[in-house]
C-alpha cells in the first residue's frame, strides 16, 4: 500500500502516526512492518532530555501492537505522519521525514515541523485525549516510573554496563519504557519484590535503548536475570512467569540459590565468578555433577533406580555439537542436583548402550522418567539445547514425581534444614485419622510440593505427637494438622495459621518468601528430634489392654 498525495484533505480523520526505519517496505503483510490502521504510533521527543521512544495505541478490536514489535532498528529512523482520505480511502502523506538520524540525537530543524504536524492533527482528529497525552510527553510532563532513591535501582545504559554487566553478582533487570501501559501496571509489583529482596538480590530498571539491543529486547516490560562475570558477557535468563511480586521473588530466589550452589561447589569463585582453573596458579577442577555411565554400570544406576528421573546425553568425543553442549550440560547437572540425575554416555565406547537406544547422531538426549524403567518408556528430547529449555523439560518430569518425605530423626532434620528453609507438616496420629484420611493429607501436601518445586524449600511430614516437646516449643499445640516453616541457620520459624489446603499453604509460602508472614525466633535450646518409626502405609490398632 503506497502513500499518495501531498496534502491533507479538509475533514479527514487522522488514522496513524508511524515511525518506520528507512528502507522498510510499508505493506500490511511485511512482518518487519506490520501495522494496524487504527493504531497511532509516534516517536516522541522530550526537549529537556535525550530522545526517547514512545507509542500510544488506539486498538482496533483486540489489537494493540508495540512499536518495538515491528521496528527492525532504532539506529536511524524517519518520522512519517499520514491520514486516510475519507472519500478515496488512500493514505495521504503529511510530512516530517527524515526527523531523527540517531536514537540519541535530535535534529532541531525538524522540531518545529514535527510539532506543527501534531497541531494540525489535533485540529482534525477525533482522538483528542490521545494527542493531548502525546503533547504532554513532548513537553516533558510525564514522570518516570521509579523514584531515583527507591527500592528499584534505576540505571542509565553506561551505569548498566558498569554495575551489572561488569559485576560478579546476580541482578533482576527490567527493560521498560515510561509510556508503556504494561510497564506502568507492572511497576508497583516490581517495587514490592525489590523491597522484599533488599539485601538479597538487587532489582534494576533500565529504559536506555542503548543497553537493550544486545539482549534481544523486543517488547516492554522485558525482565531478565543477569549473572555478571566481571566484565565478560553475563549469563542471562528470561523471566516468563506472572507479573506479580510473588512470582518475581520466586524467580530471583531460584537464581540466587543456583549461584550460591555453584560457588559452594567451586564451579565459580565468589569474588570473581571465574572458574577456579582460570585463576593463576590454581589446579583445574576435575569433579563434575554429570555422572559417567557405561555398559557396566548403566543398568544398576539408571534402570534399577525407580525413584529418580535421569537425563542422559549420548555423545562422541569428536563431535563439535557435543563439545558446544558440554558446558551447558554441566550447568544443567548442577542446577538439577538433588532433583534430576544427569548423566552422559560415550557412545563410541559404550556400543551396547548405543545399539540398545538406537543412537544415530550426536548429541542424542534421552530422559528416563521415575518409576519402573524400560526402553519403551524412554523420552527423546528434541527441544533447544539451552540451559533454560533443558531445565524446564527435566523439571516437568521431576515435578510430577516429587513427594514429601517423612521426618524420622535429628540427623535427617539437620542435614536437610541446616542451611535452607524447611516446611514441616505435623499430621494427626494414624489412630485418629486412619489411612484414608492420612493419604488425603499427604496428597494435599504433595500438590504443594509439586507447585513449589522451583523454590529453595525442603518439605517433610511427621506424625503429630511423635516430636511432642519440639512441637510444644514451636507453639503447635493448637491441633493437627499443623504446618510450620523452619530455617535453622537463621534461627527463625513461622507458623501457618490457615486451613490445610493447597491454596492456603501456597499463599503462606509466597507471603513468607515475600517477607510478609509473621516470623519468630527459634528457641535457643530447641529440642532434638526423637527417633521415629517410618509409617508402613497401613492403619494401626490400639493395643488390646487399651481397648
UniProtKB/TrEMBL annotation:
Gene3D superfamilies: Glutaredoxin. It catalyses: Catalyzes the rearrangement of -S-S- bonds in proteins. Transmembrane segments: none annotated. Residues 141-258, 278-399 form the Thioredoxin domain. It comes from the Eukaryota. One of its GO terms (cellular component) is endoplasmic reticulum lumen. Its EC number is 5.3.4.1. Keywords: Disulfide bond, Endoplasmic reticulum, Isomerase, Redox-active center, Repeat, Signal. It is found in: Endoplasmic reticulum lumen. GO terms for molecular function: protein disulfide isomerase activity; protein-disulfide reductase activity. InterPro entries: PDI_thioredoxin-like_dom, Thioredox_PDIA6_C, Thioredoxin-like_sf, Thioredoxin_CS, Thioredoxin_domain. Belongs to the protein disulfide isomerase family. PANTHER family: PROTEIN DISULFIDE-ISOMERASE A6. This is protein disulfide-isomerase. One of its GO terms (biological process) is response to endoplasmic reticulum stress. It comes from Toxoplasma gondii.
Amino acid at each position: 500500500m503506497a502513500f499518495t498525495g501531498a496534502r491533507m484533505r479538509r475533514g479527514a480523520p487522522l488514522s496513524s502516526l508511524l515511525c518506520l526505519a528507512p528502507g522498510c517496505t510499508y505493506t500490511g503483510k511485511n512482518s518487519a512492518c506490520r501495522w494496524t490502521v487504527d493504531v497511532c504510533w509516534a516517536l516522541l521527543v522530550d526537549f529537556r532530555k535525550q530522545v526517547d521512544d514512545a507509542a500510544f495505541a488506539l486498538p482496533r478490536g483486540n489489537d494493540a501492537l508495540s512499536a518495538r514489535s515491528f521496528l527492525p532498528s532504532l539506529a536511524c529512523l524517519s518520522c512519517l505522519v499520514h491520514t486516510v482520505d475519507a472519500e478515496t480511502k488512500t493514505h495521504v502523506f503529511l510530512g516530517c521525514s527524515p526527523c531523527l538520524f540517531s536514537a540519541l540525537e535530535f535534529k532541531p530543524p525538524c522540531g518545529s515541523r514535527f510539532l506543527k504536524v501534531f497541531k494540525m492533527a489535533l485540529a482534525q482528529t477525533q482522538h483528542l485525549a490521545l494527542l493531548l497525552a502525546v503533547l504532554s510527553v513532548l513537553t516533558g510532563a510525564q514522570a518516570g516510573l521509579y523514584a531515583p532513591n527507591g527500592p528499584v535501582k534505576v540505571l542509565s545504559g553506561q551505569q548498566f554496563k558498569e554495575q551489572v554487566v561488569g559485576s560478579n553478582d546476580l541482578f533482576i533487570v527490567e527493560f521498560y519504557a515510561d509510556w508503556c501501559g504494561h510497564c506502568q501496571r507492572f511497576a508497583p509489583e516490581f517495587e514490592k519484590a525489590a523491597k522484599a529482596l533488599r539485601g538479597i538480590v538487587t532489582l534494576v530498571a533500565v529504559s536506555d535503548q542503548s543497553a537493550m539491543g544486545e539482549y534481544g529486547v523486543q517488547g516492554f516490560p522485558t525482565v531478565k536475570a543477569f549473572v555478571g562475570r566481571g566484565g565478560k558477557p553475563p549469563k542471562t535468563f528470561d523471566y516468563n512467569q506472572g507479573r506479580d511480586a510473588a512470582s518475581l521473588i520466586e524467580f530471583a530466589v531460584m537464581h540466587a540459590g543456583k549461584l550460591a550452589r555453584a560457588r559452594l561447589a567451586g564451579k565459580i569463585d565468589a569474588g570473581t565468578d571465574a572458574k577456579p582453573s582460570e585463576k593463576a596458579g590454581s589446579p583445574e577442577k576435575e569433579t563434575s555433577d554429570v555422572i559417567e555411565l557405561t555398559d557396566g554400570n548403566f543398568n544398576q544406576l539408571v534402570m534399577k533406580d525407580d525413584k529418580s528421573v535421569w537425563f542422559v546425553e549420548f555423545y562422541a568425543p569428536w563431535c563439535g555439537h557435543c563439545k558446544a553442549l558440554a558446558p551447558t550440560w554441566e550447568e544443567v547437572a548442577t542446577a538439577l542436583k538433588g532433583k534430576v540425575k544427569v548423566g552422559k554416555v560415550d557412545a563410541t565406547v559404550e556400543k551396547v548402550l548405543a545399539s540398545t537406544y538406537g543412537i544415530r547422531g550426536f548429541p542424542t538426549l534421552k530422559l528416563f522418567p521415575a518409576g519402573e524403567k524400560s526402553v519403551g518408556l524412554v523420552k527423546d528430547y528434541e527441544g533447544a539445547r539451552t540451559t533454560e529449555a533443558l531445565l524446564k523439560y527435566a523439571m516437568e518430569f521431576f515435578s510430577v514425581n516429587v513427594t514429601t518425605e517423612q521426618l524420622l530423626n535429628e540427623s535427617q532434620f539437620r542435614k536437610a534444614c541446616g542451611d535452607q528453609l524447611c516446611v514441616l507438616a505435623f499430621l494427626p496420629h494414624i489412630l485418629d485419622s486412619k489411612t484414608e484420611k492420612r493419604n488425603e493429607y499427604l496428597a494435599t501436601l504433595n500438590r504443594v510440593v509439586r507447585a513449589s518445586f522451583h523454590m529453595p524449600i525442603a518439605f517433610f511430614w511427621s506424625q503429630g505427637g511423635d516430636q511432642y516437646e519440639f512441637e510444644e516449643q514451636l507453639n503447635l499445640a493448637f491441633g493437627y494438622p499443623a504446618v510450620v516453616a523452619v530455617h535453622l541457620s537463621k534461627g527463625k520459624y513461622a507458623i501457618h495459621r490457615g486451613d490445610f489446603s493447597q491454596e492456603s499453604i501456597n499463599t503462606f509460602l509466597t507471603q513468607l518468601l515475600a517477607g510478609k508472614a509473621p516470623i519468630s525466633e527459634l528457641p535457643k535450646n530447641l529440642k532434638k528430634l526423637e527417633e521415629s518409626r517410618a509409617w508402613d502405609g497401613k492403619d494401626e490398632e490400639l493395643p488390646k489392654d487399651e481397648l
